[in-house]
């Protein structure tokens, strides 16, 4: 469900950004593109039978929450620039939409991580 939600909402938001020329969205695109390249290259290597070093696997696991935090940071910077009157191609609605999108992704990702984590065994 998380994957479908993410892709559907991202598609809608991307078209919104395109239609209204939301300038900071180019940063979102660059971060997402970099993240997707890393994930798909690792998936392809795994499918081809290669075993990736642990460090790469950790990087792939960490890149998703880092991408979401970076997205929220960009939203905050763009929102502050808009609030002080800088011409940045951003509005209060853009802040609301992007923060809701990135915030919901981060919360759902963290929830999925916490729920999927096996419980610790108690040592006696």
Total DSSP E strands: 0
Average pLDDT metric: 90
Q: Ranges with pLDDT <50 over ≥5 residues?
A: none
User: What share of the residues does DSSP label as strand, in percent?
Assistant: under 5%
Structural class designation: mainly alpha
Please explain how this structure is put together.
Helix 1 runs antiparallel to helix 4, helix 2 (about 25-45) packs antiparallel against helix 3 (about 55-85) and helix 3 (about 55-85) packs antiparallel against helix 4. About 80% of the residues lie in helices and about 0% in strands. The mean pLDDT is about 90. With about 120 residues, it is an all-alpha fold.
Outline the secondary-structure elements.
Layout: H1 2-20, H2 25-47, H3 54-83, H4 92-116
Helix pairs in contact: 1-4, 2-3, 3-4
